[in-house]
Amino acid sequence: MASDRDTRIKRKRQHLRIRKRVTGTHKRPRLCVFRSLKHVYAQILDDTSGQTLASASSLDPGVRAQTQSKTEDAKLVGMLLGRRALDRGIEQVAFDRGGYKYHGRVKALAEAVREAGLKF
Q: What is residue 29's three-state secondary structure?
C-alpha cells in the first residue's frame, strides 16, 4: 500500500511530465487545477509573462454559499472561472490537470469550464 508521501511524490513527478508539454502563452493561457482534500482551486496563467489572468476556488464567497458535495463545488468553480475568463477576453486555454487523474472533481471542473464557453 502506498503511503501519502509516495502518492504526493508520484503526482509531482506526473505534473512535471505534463508541464514539459503544456505551457501557457498570451494567445492560449494554461488552465491549472489544484485539488486539496477539502477544496479545489483553478487558475488561468500566462507562463511567458508569469501572470495569473483569472482564478477561482471553492473558497470564493459565491461558491461557498452554495456548498454541496466536493464534485458539485468543482462544477461551480469551473462555471465561475469560465465566466471570469470570458469577461477578460480569454476563449481558448491549455488544460493542465496538475498530475491528477482526469475523473471526479478534475473532470467536473473541466466540463463546467467547457459549458461556460472556453475551448480546450
A: coil
- Looking only at the bridges linking them, the beta strands covering 40-46 and 30-35 are antiparallel
Q: How many domains does the chain have?
A: 1
Distance in angstroms (rounded) separating the CA atoms of residues 27 and 12 = 27
Q: What is the CATH number of the domain that holds 92?
A: 3.30.420.100
Distance, CA of 97 to CA of 32 (rounded, Å): 6
Q: Is 67 exposed, middle or buried (0-12, 13-18, 19+ CB in 10 A)?
A: exposed
Tell me if 109 sits within 8 A of 42, measured CB to CB. Answer: yes
For residue 41, the enclosing domain spans 4-116
Residue 38 pLDDT greater than 70, yes or no: yes
**What tens digit of pLDDT does each residue of 74-87 get?**
999 999 999 999 99
30 within 8 A of 47, measured Cβ to Cβ: yes
CA distance 22 to 38: 26
